[in-house]
Amino acid sequence: MSPLIDINSAMSSQTMGVEEVETGIPPALSFSHIHLYTKELKPLSEYKSLEQRCNDFASASGFTPTQAGVESLEEMQKIWTSMDVSGYSPVASETSPANSYISQGRDVVAQLICGLGFRVSSVYDGADTTTMLVTSPDNTGVQFVVTAQKAEKEPTDGTLAPGKTTVSTDGITKLSFNDEFVHFDVSQLLRFFKNHQGRPGISCLAFEVTSGDITNIYNNYSSKHPKLLTPQGMVSYKDGSGSITRVLEVFAYYKGEKQVSDADEGTILRFVEKKLSHASAKKSCKLPGLVEVDATFDGTSFPAYCDHWVSNVVSRTGFLDTLEDTLGFTPKVDFNAGVVAAGEAQIESTVTGNTAAPVDTGGDDKIALKDQSQVYLPINNALTPIGHVHGFIEEIGQGVQHVASRVSDLIAFIQRANDCRRMTGEGFTFLNIPQSYYGVMLKAQFLNKVDSDEPLLGDEDAAKVMIFAEENGLCDLTGAVPLDITREEVKEKLSKCSTIAADKVDDVMEVVMRARFVNLHTLLRGHMSEKSYIAIVKNKILVDVQGEDLLFQIFTSNVLQENVGDEAPFFEFIQRVCSECLGPDGCPAKVKPGCGGFGIRNFLTLFLSIEVSKAMMEVKDAKLAGDAAAVTKAMNRVGAFTDQLNEANPILTDISDAMTAEGGFMEDLAKATDEAEKARLQALADEQALKKKEGNEKLMVCSKKYMEIMKALREA
């Protein structure tokens, strides 16, 4: 495959004159790939040795991912350490799975291989760079393209020798690139690192043009946002079959507001369009230059598919306007400062994207799972000079905060990831979610029987049972019940409590057992088994409900993080459980893209958990320094964040329910033809909109309260 000069990369808006550029209807897009830049990659042979070790381990151990997890962890660890490691140089903490896992300084390719069961499916060996394409068992799903400068090359100052590829941007000036594939050129890495404080990260979000003309995107940028065009513009490549792939790259963000700012040259948006030479040609939008290699999976991993990609930016409205001007994207969901205010940290977030048609699954859930035509891009901006989003931008600049991929069974997927990390010492850890999110034991729970209004204990006796439970190990001082406790253990202890009559021991026992996940059960009721509830809590998976749809989600700890405390991106994994109502014809109705929403309840949980993690690091540092006062201050911050989560959760539930109901009434209103019915639906929608507004006002009061608490703690 060789580069060509594309007519659109041979003309800039400055040369043509903005008024001469015709804007066009944006083409249809779908997710393509995520491009990560890192400092170092191992040779392909080492990754293939690691993959073989993983495959041999799965075969020898009989490991099968389940929601319950492995029964004999020690035995699995012994099998892993006995496997041949020739040809692979493990990181220090992977030499013995029993060693404490450290998330900093890890090889993200090895993490994906061991932790998720992904495989290197294509490679590129360039002039100065090496690239690995890592995919799940379905290589049409999520694609992680990982590039690093070759270790044997001397670090370059960015000066490019007369290269294999030249691109003319104005008909006169020639831009030279060392690499024949511009998107893999070392200059791209240098540009990103220069604008990202030298940190590894997610450098590019890439989309496939599925129909229409990529030239229209180029023209839209040329006409409306010429500052965002990259020097190379659009380059075309022809393969051996005569098929042409066009690659357009633009800078994602302005440095500030678009009217007065230059381009932020850190993050790139990439568009890939492949024009087939003939009908039988292979349709693939993998980046030109990538060469397929054998990828053998171990039979235990799950396919994953792109769901949404999130940016932290200076100007949220500016990025929204740019995407609407050039791609036709429009806002889908807004989260205001009340929803995402963790202590003093406040942000606003908007989910934008294209408008994809509902998916006709024909009753097959896999069709909706695999469909990547609905592009969602949540965009965050900070409202206060405190908190994660502000810190991210201040420390490393605007960029991709995280990328979310969806799977068919999140509980089993995460249980597998946790098991693999414990067994092999490699993989991912996940954001720590407080037990109170899922449920803790409270005195009020003993007033009635489980799932009943029938009285159980009086107020005074309930208080005594709470004290007994704390003193006898049925819960800790926060009310958290041990997850692995059995009914037999609980019943034996409760039988010794003089406050509880013998005929009520079983009912009290059920209250204790339910307390481990009582908040989840309030949301989902009997739709899940106790075993599944416990698996969710153990693996710290977040749950949200939107109408009849469910959303399960979880966030990894930072990836590509060099040092403890550094801001860095992370991954999110989700499962959308879409309800399929029957249509008028008696067949399953089409599934709405993004069913289950974006976790309005969990948005706050995510940012609070990030702040709690930072506060816990402060606790650790203070303890190591022997600073008792600092330990107390940091623990008070942890407590305040946890209290805010507990207080905000029921308010968020009310807001979410009102949003869902309002949306449903508005959808029905759009279809209604009878005027009286329209008036009725509008009134119902207005009622829910009022409830949503009242909920937001309550949330703002809650947010302000904890903002003042955190400010007082910080200034103390």
Automatic annotation (TrEMBL):
Molecular functions (GO terms): 4-hydroxyphenylpyruvate dioxygenase activity
Which InterPro entries does the record match to this protein? Answer: 4OHPhenylPyrv_dOase (IPR005956), Glyas_Bleomycin-R_OHBP_Dase (IPR029068)
For this protein, the Enzyme Commission number is 1.13.11.27
Q: Which domain of life is it from?
A: Eukaryota
UniProt entry keywords in alphabetical sequence = Phenylalanine catabolism, Tyrosine catabolism
Q: Mind listing the GO biological process terms from this record?
A: L-phenylalanine catabolic process; L-tyrosine catabolic process
Q: What class of enzyme is it?
A: oxidoreductase
Q: Does the keyword Amino-acid biosynthesis apply?
A: no
Q: In which pathway does it act?
A: Amino-acid degradation; L-phenylalanine degradation; acetoacetate and fumarate from L-phenylalanine: step 3/6
Query: Gene3D superfamilies of this UniProt entry?
Result: 2,3-Dihydroxybiphenyl 1,2-Dioxygenase, domain 1
State whether keyword Iron-sulfur applies.
no
Q: Which SUPFAM superfamilies match?
A: Glyoxalase/Bleomycin resistance protein/Dihydroxybiphenyl dioxygenase
Instruction: Name it.
Output: 4-hydroxyphenylpyruvate dioxygenase
Lineage of this protein's species?
Answer: Eukaryota, Sar, Stramenopiles, Ochrophyta, Bolidophyceae
